[in-house]
């Protein structure tokens, strides 16, 4: 593999000295970019775009051509694993992801396909290796998966949900079935992320999008425990470098103390948690990633710059911070506002790393 020219992102995740705070954005390859919309139209559909290695590579690289990001993230979807398990993923216009089948009984669970990431999601591995080759060492490549709880939520509900009625009924009324499903998914995700690392991913992120819907006890039992299980099974190194793991639970700021002990090298936080408070709580256990409100990108460039400055000041001096949004970028954002965001991080952050 090509030598990495910019390892600022990986060094920050490992809390090693850097010259400035690295920056990337969740969903940085996406609908806010006109070139992405053109490529998606060329692909025919979102799923076809995900399954075409060359086009997935193209949209992964698009934001790097516009902005000096410090990392690329694989273009894919968190629901590839449930799709491979046989639930039939499709997308409804305006409705988001849906499944043709759900898992709500022992028979449904028993009817799931067996899973081997290298075979069943070969198109993802092809995309990872293609992107890694085309990056040519420019920046590190991030692989990712949904967390077991988040994947289970979609599988049991059949798509997005506002009240999580079906999966919470399973969790509270059929806990044995719930844990069988979560165990199956933890094993599948561990296999999936390991395969991505073998294919060329240099860091991985576990997206726990719906972890914040749980109670405190429910989070530890149904989400955090299974992410810990995954992390314990991932390769520690590849190509002679450590492979950092980032855990991101949307709405999970109140459990940061527990999350910081899960074995990950970094914890993503959303915009509802002050990053300075989070740093005090996490101490030197983990790096932190985040956490500007994505909606701030609808504000003026001047307001964006002041918010970046405020977040950097709140985190303070020293390494261990990867600047990101507190969730994915919103589709309607003006790409020029992203320029203001990235430029501000580059301009204001070096002062916090002098003498490090």
Description:
The longest helix has 25 residues, at 175-199. The protein has a single domain (8-352), classed as TIM Barrel (Alpha-Beta Barrel). The chain is 48% helix and 13% strand. It is globular. The two termini are 29 Å apart. The strands form three sheets. It has a seven-stranded parallel sheet. The chain has helices at 8-13, 34-43, 46-51, 53-66, 80-87, 106-110, 117-120, 122-135, 148-157, 165-173, 175-199, 216-233, 256-259, 275-282, 301-315, 335-348; strands at 72-73, 89-92, 96-99, 141-146, 203-208, 237-238, 241-242, 245-249, 266-268, 287-292, 321-325. It is built from 16 helices and eleven strands. The protein has 356 residues and is of the alpha/beta class. Helix 15 (301-315) links the parallel strand 10 and strand 11.
SS class = alpha/beta
Instruction: Give, in order, the helices and strands.
Output: HHHHEHEEHHHEHHHEHEEEHEHEHEH
Supply the number of structural domains.
1
On the 0-100 scale, what is the average pLDDT? 96
Oligomer designation? single chain
Instruction: Enter the CATH topology name.
Output: TIM Barrel
What's the CATH C level?
A: Alpha Beta
Can you give the helix content as a percent range? 40-55%
Q: Sketch the major β-sheet.
A: 7 strands, parallel
Shape, per Cα inertia axes: globular
Radius of gyration from CA coordinates: 19 Å
Annotated CATH architecture: Alpha-Beta Barrel
**How much strand?**
5-15%
Strand order of the largest sheet: 1-4-5-8-9-10-11
Distance between the termini: 29 Å
Individual helix count? 16
What low-confidence regions span 5 or more consecutive residues with pLDDT below 50? Answer: none
Give the beta-strand count.
11
């Amino acid at each position: 593999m090509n030598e990495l020219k910019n390892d600022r992102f990986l060094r920050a995740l490992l809390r090693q000295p850097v010259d400035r705070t690295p920056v990337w954005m969740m969903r940085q390859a996406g609908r806010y970019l006109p070139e992405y919309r053109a490529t998606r139209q060329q692909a025919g559909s979102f799923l076809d775009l995900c399954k075409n290695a060359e086009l997935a590579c193209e949209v992964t690289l698009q934001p790097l051509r516009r902005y000096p990001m410090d990392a690329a993230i694989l273009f894919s979807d968190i629901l590839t694993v449930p799709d491979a398990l046989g639930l039939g993923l499709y997308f409804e216009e305006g409705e988001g992801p849906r499944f043709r089948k759900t898992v709500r009984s022992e028979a449904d669970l028993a009817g799931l396909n067996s899973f081997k990431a290298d075979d069943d999601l070969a198109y993802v591995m092809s995309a990872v290796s293609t992107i890694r080759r085309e990056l040519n060492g420019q920046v590190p490549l991030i692989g990712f998966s949904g967390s077991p709880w988040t994947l289970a939520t979609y599988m049991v509900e059949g798509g997005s949900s506002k009240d999580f009625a079906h999966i919470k009924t399973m969790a509270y009324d059929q806990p044995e079935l719930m844990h069988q499903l979560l165990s199956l998914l933890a094993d599948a995700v561990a296999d999936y992320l390991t395969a991505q690392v073998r294919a060329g991913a240099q860091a991985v992120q576990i997206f726990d999008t719906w972890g914040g819907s749980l109670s405190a006890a429910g989070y530890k039992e149904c989400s955090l425990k299974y992410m810990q299980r995954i992390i314990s099974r991932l390769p520690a190194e590849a190509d002679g470098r450590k492979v950092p793991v980032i855990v991101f639970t949307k709405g999970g700021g109140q459990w940061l103390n527990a999350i910081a002990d899960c074995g990950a090298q970094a914890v993503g936080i959303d915009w509802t948690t002050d990053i300075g408070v989070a740093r005090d709580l996490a101490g030197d256990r983990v790096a932190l990633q985040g956490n500007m409100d994505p909606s701030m990108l609808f504000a003026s460039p001047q307001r964006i710059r002041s918010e970046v400055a405020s977040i950097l000041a709140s985190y303070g001096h020293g390494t261990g911070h990867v600047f990101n949004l507190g969730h994915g970028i919103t589709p309607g954002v003006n790409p020029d506002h992203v320029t203001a965001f990235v430029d501000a991080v580059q301009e204001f952050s070096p002062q916090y790393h002098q003498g490090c």
